[in-house]
Amino acid sequence: MDYNDISASKLVSFSDMPPGQFLLGILSAFDNRYQAFADSYFKEITWKQFFAIICLRILDTPPTINELSEVMGSSHQNVKQILLKLEKKDLIEIFPDANDRRKQRIRISKHGNEFCNCHDPESIRLMGLLFSGISDAEFETAIGVIGKMEKNLKEMQQME
Q: How far apart are CA 40 and CA 51, in angstroms?
């Protein structure tokens, strides 16, 4: 496989790079480019803020900040800052847990649901464009590789 054909950069030759290192690099670079694109698409919020909303939408019950941090793969402090900005824009609500007043839970506000409903059709269209030409088998392979990387990362973190 010629990594130079895959890379968006023509400034560097990737021909001698091991595949694992290339994959990690291209995932990181893609994440940066996608975040810049999504930030320009959503004028009201950043991609990371929208990702928090996406995570809230897929959870069965309103999570605590720690639970949302785990789903997002980010620190409690970073997620808290994201949530405070979303709360200020009236897109989410932070409220005390009914059983333990020390815990705070998060849910999408009425305005947040309206925001999502307004942006869902265009988001779906853009995802279709982004994933154009990718087969189910290719998705399964990519998900499997990243899943194994996640498992290995968790094991590495436990070694600390």
A: 14
pLDDT in tens, the chain (160 residues): 555 556 556 666 666 778 888 888 889 989 999 999 988 887 889 999 999 999 999 999 999 999 999 999 999 999 999 999 999 999 999 999 999 988 999 999 999 999 999 999 988 999 999 999 999 999 999 999 999 999 999 999 999 7
- Alpha carbon separation from 47 to 34, 83, 111, 121 (Å, rounded): 9, 13, 18, 17
Asked if 115 and 91 count as a contact pair (C-beta separation under 8 A), the reply is yes
Instruction: Tell the residue number behind the tokens 């839970």, with chain if given.
Output: 105
- DSSP 8-state class, residue 131: T
Domains and CATH numbers, the chain: 1-41 (no CATH), 42-159 (1.10.10.10)
Query: Which residues partner with 104 through β-bridges?
Result: 96
Beta bridge partners of 94: 106
Q: Tell whether pTM > 0.90.
A: no
Contact 4/14 with Cβ under 8 angstroms?
Answer: yes
How many alpha carbons lie under 13 Å from residue 103 in its C-beta half-sphere?
13
